Amino acid sequence: MTGHEIQESAGDSLYKWSALLVVVIGTFMVMLDSSIVNIAIPKMMNVFGSDLDSVKWILTGYTLTMGAIVPITGFLSDTFGIKKLFIFALAFFTVGSFLCGFAWSTNAMVIFRVIQALGGGAIMPVGMSYIMQIFPISERGKALGFWGIASMAAPAIGPTLGGYIIQYLDWRFIFYVNVPIGVIGVIVASILLRETSLKPFTGNFDFIGFFSSVIGIASLLYVLGEGSTIDWSKIEYPLLLALGCFSILIFIANELTRSDPLLELRVFKIYNFTLSQIISGVTTLALMGGIYVLPLFLQNLRGYTAMEAGIILFPSALASGLMMPISGALFDKFGAKVVTIPGLLIVAFATYKMSLFNLSTPRTTITMVAALRGLGLGFSMMPVNTSGMNAVPRHLYGKATALSTTVRSIVSAVAITFMSTMISNKSSYNYARLAEQITPFNQTSTSVIKALQGIYMKAGLSQGNAQGSALSTLGNVVYGQAYLDAINYTIGLTVFAVVIATFLVLLMRKNEKPKTTDPGKNLNKEAVSDGSNVGVASVVE
Predict the structure, then answer these.
(1) Residue 488's closest CA among 296, 344, 205?
(2) With left for phi above 0 and alpha for psi between -120 and 50, is residue 532 left, alpha or beta?
(3) Angle at 312 between CA 416 and CA 62, to 5 degrees
């Protein structure tokens, strides 16, 4: 059965939306697990008796494995079928989650997390590719909007759910919670999902592309994952960075010279697809302002627990989740620009208001601004991606989604590194500027120190100890202000990223309806659905 026949036979709405639900559940499990485990790291350190350098591999091993497995998903889905690969990935993720719950040491946990990531890394690109297969272009916006709920809501729900489990239940339930859902998902997927067309394997596997992509992506993600804490005096980091860049160059050269590459980089010749990747990369920087920076402000400066911070941010995830299907339906009717530009303008406004947060900003204000920002993201994120994927010929869906997911993983790592580096450098600079004003000649600082010293002396401290405690308290206050200014400055920078993305959206072309062709045939004149005259032959040859 060809891909086109499957799309035609999938006209039954009940089947399409039921299959979408299965894919959404699998995607939600993976995204939730990525955020929920972070909360349990201190608990694992105590249980396993490990230091931070050892236990961080529980996160690092998972991230590196997910990034390395994505490029091969296009080949696997073409060779074995999307249904088989999705079921295998979901089963592997479920088994890995079960084993993680039984882990008895840090090393065991790292190994089981790698097993978990082997399945988790394939679920997102395979799930998106399946949605592209079964839904016609006229319904893809709404379908991908529902699918996008998982990617937007899970990171906000993770800290709340993780905090509750750790506080009231056994911490191992953060892994066990995946098991019953995964088992049900595997059974339902086996019964419900339909197989896609297969591409016969000729034995000409792209080994050079596979190994160069694994080495390159894993090396770069490891270095980028160290962020602002990286110590360039250690020879391992420059070597890994050089190895990663060299491997990526080999990978690019190899993929562009093969007739059947692991990742089809020539898909970047499609105008709307390439522009959508650029816009998504720019908006990812703004997205990290809420996912990465705002929790730092809430926990490190305002003193909220991870669970409390998750509750504050939950309305933001709820707003994004509610808006994504709506934005998808509007995209199907009006196109990407009409939906995305207002959403980005809302994100820019809300992000600017976020950059004005201080230590006395009411909790309700933080929640409302974050929710407004989530609403804007719900409108702006998925229409651009859908428009880009709609421009891709049907027989390249698998490799295009793998390529898109790979780019998103690297860009997310770069964005987090950029954010953490900016906050670290700016806070050090701000602290130096503020601390130099604390001198015996500054009446304000002298008065504050004397007042604090008097309070500590009344509490029973000697004059010398009271003075030391007063200086330490003032130093903490100064550092807190320097850190707050650095966070506000970094969030403010993301406003410019949103503005750039808004102008880039104006450059997108209206997709034309592609001709109905058999994706199994090597056609020379199939129109690329972005309005350009580039034929499929020029894309894949």
Answers:
(1) 296
(2) beta
(3) 35
Tokens standing for residue 119: 């399945």
Calpha distance 180→186 (Å, rounded):
10
The C-alpha atoms of residue 350 and residue 320 are separated, in whole angstroms, by 14
Which letter does DSSP use for residue 298 in this model? Answer: I
Q: Kindly give the parts of the chain with pLDDT less than 50.
A: 1-11, 514-541
- b vs e for 77-97, b when ≥16 Cβ sit within 10 Å of the residue's Cβ? bbebbbbbbbbbbbbbbbbbb
Q: Taking the chain, what is the end-to-end CA distance rounded to the nearest angstrom?
A: 25
Question: Furthest-apart CA pair in the chain: how many Å?
Answer: 88
**Which 8-state DSSP code applies to residue 527?**
B
Cα 371 to Cα 383: distance, rounded to the nearest angstrom: 19
Neighbours of 44 (CB within 10 A): 19
How many CA within 13 A on the CB side of residue 205?
9
* Nearest in space to 48 (alpha carbons), one of 162, 222, 226, 172: 172
How confident is the model over 95-137, as pLDDT tens digits? 998 998 888 888 888 888 888 888 888 888 888 888 877 887 7
Q: What's the one-letter identity of residue 351? A: T
- Distance (Å, whole) CA 500 – CA 282: 8
Side-chain-side CA neighbours of 307 within 13 Å: the count stands at 9
* 452 Cβ contact partners less than 8 Å away, ≥ 6 residues apart: 466, 469, 470, 473, 474
Q: Return d(Cα 159, Cα 168) in angstroms, integer.
A: 14
**Tokens 């993976």, residue?**
30
State the Cα–Cα distance between residues 539 and 541, nearest whole angstrom: 6
Q: What is the pLDDT of residues 473-488, one digit of tens each?
A: 777 777 778 888 888 8
Q: Is the four-CA dihedral 379, 39, 59, 117 of positive or negative sign? A: negative
pTM over 0.85: no
Residue type, 273: F
Are the CB atoms for 511 and 529 separated by under 8 Å? yes
Nearest C-alpha neighbor of 383 from the set 434, 452, 331? 331
The answer to whether 318 and 327 are in contact (CB under 8 A) is no
Rounded-to-integer distance, Cα 326 and Cα 371, Å: 16
How far apart are the C-alpha atoms of 158 and 177, rounded to whole Å?
A: 12
Query: What are the residues whose beta carbons fall under 8 Å from the beta carbon of 384, sequence distance 6 or more?
Result: 276, 279, 280, 283, 336, 340, 505, 508
Element (H, E) at 21: helix 13-48
